[in-house]
Amino acid sequence: MIGALKYEWARITSIRSSYWMSGLALTLSAGIAIILCLVVNAANDAGDLGNLAGQSTFSTWIVTSGASGPGMPILAAVFFAVMGCMAMGHEYRYGTNKATLTALPDRIAVLASKSLVLSAWVAAPALLILLLNTAIAWLFVDGMSLDGGSLRPMLFFMLYCVGFGLAGIMLSSITRNQVGSIVAVLVWPLVLEPIVFAILRITALSGSDIGLGKLANLLPASAGRRTMFRPFDLFANLDVSSETTIWGLGASTAVFWIGIAILVGIGGTLFVKRDA
């Protein structure tokens, strides 16, 4: 296992895409934080909403690049998911999978090392994003305020990014195609789930009595996205209807990680059982 970890660390640190993906995630997240700072400052100048910067909810919104509120995609997670796709997809695209498995015959160790190294790598820039955004907020916004309630959205931001990275690895293990897995990891959370989520919620709000609105709780990426909401109950249930009630924080967290676990189970099994 130690050899597999060293092998994977050498791989991830020696390819430029690791630095490009991490750098783009950091840059775009910081850009969003700056835009949100301008929004908060404009609201403060107008004076209609009071001192937004002094409210920890809005400060958390800036630090998480909009993740603690609805309607903002988590761009950093997308880049880390692509990194995950490349971590395994490169093996099949360039035919190095046979060389890797010749040097490291234990397939479970190979897959585990890729997952562990990528998770550690993703956690580092995700934490750096939060620290940089905090510095940006302190620099550009007067009265910046964070409290204990800010920790949960920040922690789940990091976990969400790690989960997307793992999803990328497993999708490449399933498809054995780098391009296909990248398309899947982009289309599912950014296109497919929002469309399905909207259809289910609209159907429920239109008066349907067959419980379609509750099926929206089972969409893993959307559930993971909600774990960062602050306040959770307000943003998770923006529409009020018995047919559209969203599950609580614990259940949403479980749905997200069960979705990741299913991918890990399928991808891991296929990687171990199939021929190289």
Structure description:
- The protein is mostly helical and 276 residues long.
- It has one domain (2-273).
- The protein has twelve helices and no strands.
- The chain is globular and about 65 Å long.
Secondary structure blueprint with pairings:
Layout lengths: L1 H13 L1 H31 L9 H8 L11 H19 L3 H7 L3 H34 L10 H25 L2 H28 L6 H4 L4 H7 L5 H5 L12 H25 L3
Q: How many DSSP-defined strands?
A: 0
Series of H and E elements:
HHHHHHHHHHHH
What separation lies between the terminal Cα atoms? 19 Å
Rg on CA atoms, Å: 20 Å
Sheet having the most strands: none
Whole-number average pLDDT? 85
**Which range does the strand content fall in?**
under 5%
Structural class: mainly alpha
Model regions low in confidence, pLDDT < 50 over at least 5 residues: none
Can you count the helices? Answer: 12
**Helical content (DSSP H or I, runs of 4+):** over 70%
Shape: globular
Number of domains: 1
